[in-house]
UniProtKB/TrEMBL annotation:
GO cellular component, one term: cytosol
Keyword NAD among UniProt keywords: no
UniProt entry keywords in alphabetical sequence: DNA-binding, Phosphoprotein, Transcription, Transcription regulation, Two-component regulatory system
Protein's name according to its UniProt entry: DNA-binding response regulator
Gene Ontology biological process terms, A to Z: regulation of DNA-templated transcription
MF-aspect GO terms: phosphorelay response regulator activity; transcription cis-regulatory region binding
Classification via InterPro entries: CheY-like_superfamily, OmpR/PhoB-type_DNA-bd, Sig_transdc_resp-reg_C-effctor, Sig_transdc_resp-reg_receiver, WalR-like, WH-like_DNA-bd_sf
DNA-binding region: 125-219
Domain Response regulatory per the UniProt entry, residue ranges: 2-116
SMART domains reported for this sequence: REC (SM00448), Trans_reg_C (SM00862)
Residue spans crossing the bilayer: none
């Protein structure tokens, strides 16, 4: 699950990003409305956390522009307590939910998860089955036959990228981008490390290496 945070209060943005990353989300952060619209408009996000008072372009306009362009990504608006937010206006521009600052982090995470659940309920089943592998992307649980396999948050996220595109080649760059974030500057070979751990935990024959292209998860 990939989230975008559009928030100009850098400390708040950073602490939200840290917390949500620890929950297993891949999180990107931008600090102004124009960048926010640009990034969110590229697609590829499962949810956008959008502040209202932003330099460049305010959150209402970002939200309205995304909806006008046909993007249906869930949007959670953040607002200050001083009444800058007009709930009716926010919902009019197409926001799915809003949260008034200062909010508790626990409440934010609960709202984020509720929006993602609501979205899933409207769409495809969260459970992917490939041969003896069963991955519940909502509960974040993995089974081999009847036996549950315990994965770390990052291991699960790498597996999720492969299983939602089972049968297709997924490049290392793609996995990096979705599981880590666009600012990740470490060694891209970290993906190999996670894939070899997954192979150890899930057994051989499930995750194939496609030379020069990436990985493909398929029924063994
Ligand atoms: Ca702001």
């Amino acid at each position: 699950m990939r989230l975008l945070i559009v928030e100009d209060e850098k400390r708040l943005a950073l602490s939200l990003a840290r917390g949500l990353t620890a929950e297993g989300f891949a999180v990107d952060v931008v600090h102004d409305g124009v960048d926010g619209l640009h990034r969110a408009g590229e697609g590829g996000y499962d949810l956008v956390i959008l502040d209202i008072m932003l330099p460049g372009m305010n959150g209402y306009r970002v939200c309205a522009a995304l909806r006008a362009a046909g993007h249906d990504v869930p949007i959670l608006m953040l607002t200050a307590k001083d009444g800058e937010y007009d709930e009716a206006e926010g919902l009019d521009t197409g926001a799915d939910d809003y949260l008034t600052k200062p909010f508790s982090y626990v409440v934010l995470v609960a709202r984020v998860k509720a929006l993602l659940r609501r979205r899933r309920a409207a769409g495809v089943s969260p459970v992917r089955v490939v041969g003896d592998l069963k991955v519940d992307t909502a509960a974040r649980r993995v089974f081999l036959g009847e036996d549950e396999v315990t994965l770390t948050a990052k291991e699960f996220s790498v597996l999720e990228q492969l299983v939602v595109r089972a049968g297709q080649v997924v490049s290392k760059a793609d996995i990096l981008e979705h599981v880590w974030d666009f600012a990740y500057e470490g060694d891209p070979n970290i993906v190999e490390v996670y894939v070899s751990t997954l192979r150890r935990k899930l057994g051989a024959g499930l995750i194939k290496t496609v030379r020069g292209a990436g990985y493909r998860l398929e029924k063994r």
